[in-house]
Design goal:
alpha+beta, 12 strands, Arc Repressor Mutant, subunit A, single chain, 45% helix, Jelly Rolls, 4-stranded antiparallel sheet
């Protein structure tokens, strides 16, 4: 990527959207491109937090893993999302793992450079604080969902979130490429693949959606899904 493309990508992030062009160009000068194959681990839970990343292409899942190799998916990320910012700020180890869901290009920024730029450019520090605040809010919402919603409600909530983030409106239907497997979706909502599959087909039978081949879903009643999700 050239400098102009990197600046455009950074300007699209929620972290750096309010920065001036000159500030973005300064930050872009420290970007390092890193490519990952599908299924490659970007970092492991417990690794040093020596960099943060901006997703330039592809997609990434961030997850927690137990000693029994069970997973809980926290979030899936696509351009221009960022990841790894929490460990960069507090200097602690990675609190989760990250894996490329498809061939993925990331822009990496070393922690030492980020801390230096934060002291020189207040807008960068403000962007990081806002991003970390968004992470805390997301985790708070996820905790509330596990307490107050049943499994079907959590599946409906996840589908609504995906539809809002990446759904494509076609006539009166929202066409949604989940970008993750049903196993990943199950790990995200705290259920088994079989139970989530049954819930999807139950929602299909009630006219909320159509389950297509692969990872595609056609949402026919987004308002109904929102009500089922308690929104």
């Amino acid at each position: 990527m050239n400098t102009g493309e990197i600046v455009d990508l950074l300007a699209r992030t929620t972290m750096f959207a309010g920065m001036k062009p000159a500030e973005l160009e300064k930050l872009a000068g420290f970007a390092n491109e890193r490519t990952f194959k599908k299924g490659s681990l970007i970092f492991y839970q417990g690794d040093p937090g020596d960099a943060f990343y901006v997703v330039a292409s592809g997609s990434v899942k961030v997850f927690l893993a137990s000693k029994q190799a069970e997973e809980m998916v926290l979030v899936t990320l696509r351009p221009p999302d960022v990841l790894g910012e929490v460990a960069v700020l507090d200097g602690g180890p990675r609190s989760a793992s990250a894996e490329a869901l498809e061939p993925t290009l990331l822009l990496a920024f070393a922690r030492s450079i980020v801390l230096q730029l934060m002291s020189e450019e207040p807008a960068i520090a403000e962007g990081f604080l806002q991003s970390v605040g968004n992470v805390v809010r997301r985790l708070t919402r996820q905790t509330a969902d596990f307490v107050f919603l049943d499994l079907e409600g959590r599946v409906a909530k996840a589908l609504v979130d995906f539809a809002d983030q990446r759904g494509e409106q076609v006539d009166e239907v929202i066409v949604l490429d989940l970008g993750i497997t049903q196993t990943d979706l199950a790990n995200m909502v705290g259920g088994s693949r079989q139970s989530v599959n049954q819930i999807l087909h139950g929602l299909e039978d009630r006219g909320y959606l159509d389950v297509e081949h692969g990872r595609s879903i056609r949402i026919k009643d987004i308002d109904g899904l929102r009500r089922r999700a308690g929104l």
